[in-house]
Design brief:
mainly beta; nine-stranded mixed beta sheet
């Protein structure tokens, strides 16, 4: 599992996250609520639901509303890939 930490970079869309460096992120509106696309420190991309998320499908995270330097709780854990916290626009590995 990757143990690196990195600063986050706000992107213009989800494609830019896929093409960007680790720490790239984009917050998009969906019918169910907001979703954050992000590239983890190991280079894998992931999408997570931000609360309140209307459909009760999978996990969701509390978000402080900051679109440039977000903080999420609880930690983000993609098994076998990365586990850490997103605090004040920084991905901090556990």
């Amino acid at each position: 599992m990757n143990t690196e930490s990195c600063g986050m970079i706000r992107c213009s869309d989800d494609d830019a996250v896929l093409d960007g460096p680790p720490g790239s992120f984009y917050i998009m509106d969906t019918e169910g609520g907001k979703v954050m696309w992000l590239k983890l420190p190991d280079g894998e991309a992931s999408a997570i639901n931000l609360r309140p998320y209307k459909p009760d499908i999978g996990a969701s995270w509390e978000w402080d509303g900051n679109e440039n330097k977000p903080t999420l709780t609880p930690s983000v854990h993609r098994v076998g890939s990365w586990h850490g916290f997103i605090r004040n626009g920084r991905m901090e590995s556990c």
